[in-house]
Amino acid sequence: MTISRRDFLKASAAAAAFAAAGAPLLNPLASGEAEAAEAGIKWGKAPCRFCGTGCGVLVGVKNNRIVATKGDPSAPVNRGLNCIKGYFLSKILYGRDRLTKPLIRKGDRMVEASWDEAMSLIAGKFRESIDKNGPDSVAIYGSGQWTVFEGYAASKLFKGGIGTNNVEPNARLCMASAVTGFMTTFASDEPMGCYDDLDLGDTYFLWGANMAECHPVLFSRLIDNRLRNPNVKIIDFGTRRTRTSQMADQYVRFNPQTDLALLNGIAHVILRDRLYDETFIKRHVVFKRGKENIGYGLEDKFKFADEPKLINFDEYREFLKTYTPEYVSRLSGVPAKTIVELAHLYADRKRKVNSLWTMGFNQHTRGTWVNNLVYNVHLLTGKICRPGENPMSLTGQPSACGTAREVGTFTHRLPADMVVMNPEHRAKAEKIWGIAPGKIPAKPTYNATEMFRALDRGDIKVVWIQVTNPFQSLPNLNRYRKGARKGDGRFVIVSDIYPTRSTELADVILPSAGWVEKEGVYGNAERRTQQWFKLVDPPGEARNDLWQTMELARRLGHGSLFPYKYVEKEIWEEYRKFNEGQGKDLAPYEAYAKARGLRWPVINGKETLWRYAEGHDPYVKKGEGVSFYKNKADHYRAVIWARPYEPPAESPDRQYPFWLCTGRVLEHWHTGTMTGRVPELKRAYPSAVCEMHPEDARKLGIKHLQKVKISSRRGSIILPVDLNGRGKAEKGNIFVAFFDEGKLINDLCIDAYCPISGEPDYKKCAVKIEKA
Amino acid sequence: MDAENSKSGVTRRRFVRDGILVPLSLAVAGGAVSTIFLRKGDARNFYLRPPGAIEEKRFLAACIKCGKCAQLCPYNSIRMAGPEAGVGTGTPHIVAREIPCYLCPDIPCAKACPSGALDSSLQEVEKIRMGTAVIVDRENCLSIRGLRCEVCYRQCPLIDRAITIEPRHNTRTGVHTIMEPVVHRDKCTGCGICENACVLEKPVIVVQKSPPVQKDYYDF
What we know:
heterodimer, A: alpha/beta, Phosphorylase Kinase, domain 1, Rossmann fold, 4 domains, 6-stranded mixed β-barrel, 31 strands, globular, B: alpha+beta, two-stranded antiparallel ribbon, disordered N terminus
């Protein structure tokens, strides 16, 4: 690969369109008139920087500055629309406090430094720690906002160069349970369906997903399906009445954690009333049962390994016996009659049924189980791998799928569903990476929470944080914030575009290029891979995270891992080798430069809308109908898991009588470092509030807008109470959004996690409320 | 008496002239000027008065400009009008785009009013009627253009009552919903939180003077 960037730009029509005056190619809407009005503005395409929906936008550039953005009318995901965050994309890079120079800590002050000084300091710390404490004493913590290239380079350097599996993304805090759910049920990550199912189905069960606020454009599509088809039903399962519940046909309130019981209850009724698809089960399903009573990961160095055993249909039926509608009703608070009705709705042969879920399922101490259980219902009824009929896990970050999951930037993962524990997988990676056999360690090290526990203990000395804000987003923050500044050789590097609650704890802050200040590829929730070119220069001395990682590699003597001229394209072509023939095939780089994203597997230039389905997925042979071809171990069948209900790590008691649930609002994204810099969004939703049920408030003598002190066993916070906001807390529950950097609600959250996925539960912990 | 009067320098004639006629004429002139200023200062010809304010003309007559309401407002929403308000100089009002009324449950401003300009017997925030929010610029409203904004709706303290969402099919994309915010006059308090929150440079939803109810005999 010796093609230079210049050659490539020339060769690629779409790129040339941006580079030269042919902007209309990327902007099919621009008529002559519009062009005149937009004199001097050149338009390039990019996926939105925010959530996992992956809306396409057109970015208007003038004088090396983004002057406008607009929804891309030819992007299939959003067809020209955006949510209010996407509307303000042009402002996210231009906050007044943008980081433009490397900063090095000198006592309590951060002092400007040159890149050379900063990088030699960093490389020195890495070398020192590796020499003294071994490669597992250094770590990189990235995110689902890493571009594919950034994630790939980080994984290659740490796993293939330094020789440590200390690579984790913040996606561990958000998607890990979906990953382990997919892996344990289908032996391959990511959904079979796609967004077209939102148009084609007629029955939608939402589980722990506030789509109206967190996937705004997709929700608008879902609601439109109902506007056009009066037959469409939307059922919202939740523990909090949201804007989504408001627009759903039915809101089903359940007690936190009892989704496990509810799904088993639904399966119970499906079996009891013989509503299942016997042929589908016989051909495509095996049954398994794993370990139970599996713990909560609360203690340091918690380890868990499941021991799945094959069971038969009768044993599964036996397992479900206890989950009668009456028993489930007592646990969940959902009337038994409703459970029976909804089970019948799930199994209705005349209906095209979809399940959609997000953090309510994933951020769950039994997150993997609850993902398994929703697949059970679809597998029992055969409502899967058909257009308009699928279970679909929605994602929260723009490249949680593309980077964290597909490139595999978790401690245990390698690209294309491979894992470090498997010697064949390691050998394949070592071959593609051109490194010595045996270089990649066989044992995974730490999940995200454990990584910061290790930093707190001092087992990890040097950690580099890129494109994320863990010291606002980790649970039980107090411990990990303190841990980062314990000294004793600990060294924290943070690369970001703005000062955050994480940069304030850093020893070195590196100014990064953001979004279209660099070339990138993101992958959205429907397996759509979307590419963009660099459209403007980063401000000051800010530099691409990809360059930063490769610069560290060079200084550590691993420069030969990155022998590229046109880095992005060559990384892509190398990365593609992992995916070829694995059911995860990606197209050549040029194809993405032209297309508005392609859904993998892409074979002979054709994307795949429905995986495992004959006629849609080229891996499925004629006559097979459906084939879960990635699950070789179980003879290409999917797994129905017998997973019981188990209580959460912490439940309300006399001392801490309320449930605390955290989450997002439409106006802000994650820790608010970008949306907080957009004055219009800040004005629209300035600061966090505590949603509470009016009756609970009355009992405590608390009035609307009054300030309260919320405390858990881990921390406390003062917030005004909102009794009649956009979200309505159920009795005994409160809800607080986590975007507000001035109000660290995660101080209160418990750092219990799902033993299989390692994902913490941000949705359930016990708190008390007092007048402040 | 005369001698005393001449000593103090105030004759009855002079007292009448200086003490009554001059201020009176100034006030009359000021009133005329104030209407001009009101129009100029506020294109809507409307001052958003604090909760419980009685009808504007009576309000202007009743308010003694003591500033107690402003003093008790925990959000500094209430400010005293400057000379641009003419006859209303020194009267309390709210500039929603800067700081709206957050509808304190105990309505401290109205309770504190000693003059009756604000109805101190007001108990429920739902009954406050300061004005009515109106979408004044539909063409620019992002929600009506199909974007998922609806900030005014979600921030409305009477969400789903004073503002609701009326979904309709978006013919331009063919697969999305236009979620149009609709203000309901009978529920809107005129607090101005929507006007404050609107993300556009010029808010497309603003609080205006509530139009009079035109009675007829329909029940719906």
